Amino acid sequence: MKAMGQIMCVIFLSFSLQACSVVMATKQPSKKDLNVLAVGMPRAALIAEFGPPVHTEAKDGKKYDIFRFVQGYSTGAKASRALLHGTADVLTLGLWEVIGTPTEAIFDGREVAYEVTYDENDRVATVTPLKTTE
Q: Three-class SS of residue 125?
């Protein structure tokens, strides 16, 4: 009877430890559409995609913005990662979390930054990568 209690305890612990990496995979940042960084795009389109710029400045008659954000992952990539972690958790009775959780902590997107200048109509004139994912 004591052995049965220990087995139940191990099973309970293995299932309660599962899913940290699964949840982390689903909560990774979303992928931003970098196609809005094209000459002629309105400033509002960039703000809608990336959020407000971290710095705005006007000099020499031109407006400059610096956008900084985390480039994340597509919905499909996040779902695939969550499915992989969930399957590995079940097959290893939760031992996969030793690998899966730190992996998700490391692969949490890349910070990128761009400087954008605008013409007199607040449309993109130039885009300068400051920090990219490449």
A: strand
